[in-house]
Structure formats: structure tokens, C-alpha cells
Amino acid sequence: MADLLILKQAEEFRKEYFHRNRQAEENRQKETQAAIRIQSWFRACKVRAYLSHLQKKAIIIQKTWRGFAARARVRQMVKAAYFTVKMNFYNEMAVRIQQRWKGFYVRKYVHNFYARKTYLEQILIKNELVRKELDEIWEAQKRENEHLEAVKQQKNKIHQAHQLHYLISTNQLPGVFNSPYRQTPHEMELLLRQVKYQVPASLAHKDTGYPRGIRDSVGVSFSGCLESEGPISTRTWDLRTRLPPIASRNTRQKTKRL
Amino acid sequence: MPMLRSLMLDAVPSIQQMAAVAVGRLADHSHSLAEAVVKEDILPQLVRSLATQNRFYKKAAAFVLRAVAKHSPELSGAVVDCGGVDALVLCLEEFDPEVKEAAAWALGCIARHNASLSHSVLEAGAAPLLVLCLLEPDMALKRIAASTLSDICKHTPELAQTVVDTGAIAHLSQMILSRDVKLKRQVFSALSQISKHSVGLAELVVEAEVFPAAFVSLKDPDEYVRKNVATLMREVAKQTPELSQLIVNCGGLSKVIDYLGESRGQLRLPGIMMLGYVAAHGEGLAMAVILCKGVPQLALCLSEEPEQHMKAAAVWSIGQIGHHTPEHAKAVATAGLLPKLLQLYTDASSSEDLQAKSKKALKSILQKCTYVPALEPLLYDAPSNILKHVVCQFSKVLPHDSKARRLFVTSGGLKKVQEIDAEPGSALQEYINAINSCFPEEIVRYYSPGYSEVLLQRLESYQPA
């Protein structure tokens, strides 16, 4: 009986073993799948944890780095802004200085109001001075002209006296200009008495050698008045009268020169 | 004429001379006779014998050439064509002053007509010889030489430059101080012809220290001397501001103004134009003209002279003086010139030129004028294009000056402005609006035309309570 029991036990054992194996075999798939699932999930958690750890560290690094870089940039910007603020200030001040200087310079040298005022006053003063000077010169010229006129008149009178020399009064007869009813003789009478004989002008005219009438008609408009104006007179009859008498006597004998 | 021609070929020299003189007198008499002389071929014969004969013949021949040439450019051309110019230049080298005088006078008559004839005279080498003639002691020769130089220089700048290159200016400027009246006339005329062409030439004339000395002659009893001096000053002042400045600094303005006061008629024209040119160059110079009492003198000239072109010149000068700044415009306005200018503009008997010039002057002065009492009379009579400027000036002045506003209202100006009707949108309307905005509305309404009717209508529709 024991053997049977053992055999039965062995049989049952074998059946149990077989059933258990079969059960296990059937469960193996499920269990492997479950195990795989659990393992994969666990690995995933591990990886996730690792990744999140990495991420956190990366974040920390990036955060520190960005803070550093930004602060450096801000410092630079602050420096630049400070610089611009200073430059603006300097520019402002420079503009103010230049404004004042330019205003001063222009008012003093370029558009100087007082200089212009004095200039205009000076012009008026100069005008007055010039007027006075020119008036004086003009007066002097007029006086000189009058003097020349007077001399001319006197010469004319003397010439007339030459012509009318026969009217002089003699011892027996008083002349026309020496009326007995006058207190003193007329000036003409005095002239007549003073005048000395000279070569008559009509004879001296003959020596131009060219008919006088022609010369006058050709040159009349520009030869002006009778008196010659230059210091050296070129009128030939003047030259003749200044030469000694011998030359003047010769001219009377000369014929018309050709 | 053929008989005279054959007489000119006679053996006896005095007959030749007399024949030449007779031909000359005939040609001198009239244009047609001169043409007849040319047709008879007398000129080539004269020119040929000029080289050989004695001085009396040369003088007579030069007289003939002058008498022919003086009538017209064609006859002068005929003289030039038969070699007359070279023969005359040969005569200029003679010793006898009268021959030189006749030759120079003939050259002057030829050169007077136009530029090409003057050019042919200069090409024959006349300029240095003429300058030598200036130095001669004979007064008539100097006069003729100066007048010939003046006739040559007047045509173009190149001719004037050629004459100046021979050193004429120095001699001419020395002769300014001479006593002879006719010489002074010619000298000043020559200097003014030289200086009118360009700045360089004018500067050369000024460097010869002409200026303070020339002012003495402004008071010369001879009117042509005065006129030529004024012409010289005008030509020099015209060129640049510096030259005008120089004249003003030498004290020339007062003399010119005195000259304007003393002379009458045509003589005033160069003086008036000189003031205009000086004032045109700059506002400082214009101020100098005003201070030397130029404006009253110009007003006198404007009222005294009957000639249209003199008035036009005076109007132009006034415009040049007044258009620079409000100060200048005020000086012109206080002399009472604005109504006169307006009257000249609107007067039907003024010539076109006078009207155009007075309009231009009036406009340019009005654009700067801020002197209210002078602007007011213009509101009443002016035609619309002038009125526009007057109203514009008012619209500029009134916003700032309260006394002027009061004056404007009390003198009836505001009333007149309301009565002007202008198209809406035109510049005139804008100015009127600008003026109206300077005053309170009631006043504007009070003065607007037809206000009394509006009030009466309101009265009719009013019911007492």
C-alpha cells in the first residue's frame, strides 16, 4: 500500500508536476509580459528620473550662464548709456558756448552795428569835408579865371590903345578922353599916354605861309578861343613879336611860303 | 567835280591844296555831295599823293577824308577801303601839330560809326600814335586825340582794352586837372567810355586816381563837363559793389546830389542813374545814399522833369533805394513818394516803360514797407494788384502793434478793407482774414458794409417785451 501510495503520490506528483508545469507554462507568457511591463515601466521611471535630473542641472547651468551674460551686457549698456548721456551733455554745453561765441563774433566783426553807424557818420563827415575842399578849390579856380579874364580885358584895352593912339591929347588940344570938364583924365587917356610902339599885329600874321582863312575854317571848332591855353603858346605871331626887330623886318619881305 | 579832280593833279602845289580844300568843303556840306566825291574816285588819288606831298596838302587831304567819312558808316567804309586809314596813320607820325590834328580828327570821324571801323583804325596802329598826340603841348591836338580815343573805345571791350594797353589812362587822368574846358569834356568822355565795358577796365581807371580829382569838375561852369563826369561816375559805380563803395568813401555822393540840385533837364540823367546803381549794390550803400539826402533830391527830380525817360530813371533809382529793408522803405515812404509812384503807374499818359518801372518799384518797396501812415493812403486809390501788397503788409504789421491797430480803425482803414471784395481762396482774401482776426468781431461787423441794413432788419423783427 505504501508503494501504491507512493506511486499514487508519484502519479499525483507527476500529474501535479505536469499540471503545475502546464499552468506555469500557461502563466509564463502572462508573467513574462507582466514582468516585461514592470521592468520597462521601472526602466522608464529610472530614465525619466535621470532625464529630469539632467534637465534640472542643465537648467541651473543655463540659468547661471544667462544671468552672467545678461549682467555683463547690461553693464555694457549702462556704460554706453552713461557715455551717451555725458556726450549729450557736453554737446549741449558746446552748442551753448558756440552760440555765444558766434553771436559775439558776428556782432563784433561781421555785422557790427556800431561800426556801421560810425561808418555812415563818417561818410557824412567825409562828404562835408569833400564839399568844403571842393568849394575852396572851386573858389580858387574861379578867382584865377576872373584874374585871367581881367588880364585879358586889360590886354584888350592896351591893344585898343595901340590902335587909337592918335586920340592922345597934345599940348594944344585936349583929346577925346581928356575933357577939360573932368577933374582927372579918363583911364583911357592914361593908357594912351603909357603905351609904347610895337610891331602891328596884322603884319606878323602873314607868316604861317598858308592862307589864314583856310586854316580857320579847317580847324575852327577845336581851336577854341583866341588865347592859347598851354604854357607854351604855339601861335606863330606871338613867336614873331618876341623875336628881335631884325627878324620881324625880314618877315615883311618874305613871300608866301609854299 | 571832275574839274576839281583834274585840278588836284596840277603841277603847282598851292593849286593842288586849294582844290583839295574845295573838295573837302563840298563833301562837308552834305551827304549826297560826299557820295559824289567818292564816286569820282578822288579818294584813292588823295591817298596816293598823301605820302609824297607837303604838310599843307596833307592837312587838306585829311580834311577831305574827314568830311567824307563823317556822314555815314558806308562812306567811312569807302574811305577805309581805299586805304585812307593807313595814310592817316602816316600823317599822325608827322611833326606838324596841325597835320596831326586833322588826321586824328578824320580817324575819329571814321571810328565813330561802328565797331568794325574802329577795329580797322586800331589795326592800322593808330592807338600808340594817338596816345603820343595826347602828350603834345598843342591844346587842340590834345582835344582831338582825346575825342578820337573816346570814339574808338565806346564800341566794344576789346577795342577799349587795346587802347588801354597803350597806356592811355595815365595820360588822360593827368589831363583831368587842366584848365581847358573842351579838353576836360573829351577826357571825361573817353574815361567813361573806357570804364563802361568791364570791371577790369573800370578798376584800371580808378587806380589811376581819377576820383577825388574828378569831383572838382562836377562844379565846372560848362554843363557838358559836368555831364561827362557824372557819366564816368555812373559807369564806374555800375560795375561792382567795391567800386561803388570806393566812390562813396571818397565823398562822391554829396557832390552828385549837389550836381543834381544844380542842373536841369537831360544833364541830370547820369546823376540819377548813378544814385540808382550805387543803391542797387547793397543795403549799406543804399543807406548811405539815404543819409546823404538822396531821396528828397530824387523826389525833386521826379516832380520837376517832364521827360518820360527821366522820370523812368528816377523811379527806377527810388525803387533800388527802397527795396532793401524796412528802414529804407520807410525813408522812401516818408518822402511822400509812394502816392507819386502810384499816380505815375495809373496815369494813362505815362509811357509803357514808365508804367512798368513804377509798378516794379512800387511793388518792391511795398513788400518791405511797414510804415503804417504811409501805407494808408494807398488803400484808397490803388488798383487790385498793388492793393494785394498793401493789404499783405498791413496783415504783417497789425498783429503786433496795438497803436497801429487803433490808428487803423480810427482812420477808416478797417472800413476800407471790409469794402474790398476779393475772391474767396485768393491771397487777398487770406490777408483780409488775417487783418480781421486782429480785431474783435463786433468791430469787424460794425465796419462791414451793409451792417446798418442788418441792424434795421433786426429792428423791424423785434417785438418789445
TrEMBL record, chain A:
Gene3D superfamilies hit by this protein: 1.20.5.190
Family annotation (SMART domains): IQ
Protein name as it appears in the record: Spermatogenesis associated 17
One Pfam family cited in the UniProt record for this chain: IQ
TrEMBL record, chain B:
Highest taxon of source: Eukaryota
GO BP terms: epithelial cilium movement involved in extracellular fluid movement; filopodium assembly; neuron projection extension; sperm axoneme assembly
Entry-linked Gene3D superfamilies: Leucine-rich Repeat Variant
SUPFAM superfamilies: ARM repeat
GO cellular component annotations of the record: acrosomal vesicle; axoneme; extracellular region; microtubule cytoskeleton; sperm principal piece
GO molecular function, one term: microtubule binding
InterPro entries (alphabetical): ARM-like, ARM-type_fold, Armadillo
PANTHER family hit by this protein: SPERM-ASSOCIATED ANTIGEN 6 (PTHR23314:SF0), SPERM-ASSOCIATED ANTIGEN 6 ARMADILLO REPEAT-CONTAINING (PTHR23314)
Name assigned to this protein: Sperm associated antigen 6
Native organism: Fundulus heteroclitus (Killifish)
